[in-house]
Amino acid sequence: MNDTDKRRIKEIITKDTVVLDVIDTVHEALALMAENRVSALPVVDSHNRCVGILSAADLVDLTRDTEENLRDLDLVNLSTKRFLIDKLAQSLGTEPVQAYMSDSVVTVTPETPIVKAAQEMLRNHIHHLPVVDQDQKLLGIVSTMDILGAFAEDES
After folding, report:
1. pLDDT for 102-148, tens place per residue?
2. Quick count: other Cβ atoms within 10 Å of Cβ 13?
3. The pTM is what?
4. What is the extent of the structural domain holding 19?
5. Which of the residues 18, 28, 52, 124 could staple to 103 if both were Cys, CB 3.0 to 4.6 A apart?
């Protein structure tokens, strides 16, 4: 048994977590992701309860769905097509993140063993785990890089 088997999430949690409110827009989410150089943001309600997570993958899926819908625009002239694409881009950006977030979010507590958190990430094919208390209030987040760092520390 190595040290990582005993260590808990509370030892590696990122507490200064950038979050989204359920009413924030996709534009606001993109700006926060870019500004903070993160690829996922927990989504909280007015009581700071974690109700979802919005990742770059969710936004890529949104883009892919939009692209499929735009294929029908090949039937219209170029200026109409540009106008419709601009309008669509504007309207998508003003949509609330709640419409695109993953609401079946996998979470951990501060007392969760790091190994168990890594297993949850692997089982669910995810890279971020919001850390919550017993009332689902957001305390922070851990990423695959945080967990890899913990394993690397234990091996050195």
Report:
1. 989 999 999 999 999 999 999 999 999 999 999 999 999 999 999 99
2. 18
3. 0.79
4. 3-155
5. 52
Q: In this structure, what CATH number is given to the domain that contains residue 23?
A: 3.10.580.10
Single-letter residue type at 122: L
**128-132 and 138-143 beta bridge pairing:** antiparallel
Q: Domain count of the chain? A: 1
Residue 71: count other Cβ atoms within 10 Å of its Cβ: 8
Say if CB 106 and CB 49 are below 8 A apart.
Answer: no
Q: Which residues, 6 or more positions from 58, have their beta carbon under 8 angstroms from its beta carbon?
A: 100, 101, 102
Amino acid 19 reads V
Burial of 75 (0-12, 13-18, 19+ CB in 10 A): exposed
pLDDT at site 43: 97
Residue 72: predicted pLDDT: 58
Q: Give percent of the chain with pLDDT exceeding 90.
A: 56
CB atoms within 10 A of CB 132: 22
76 residue type, one letter:
V
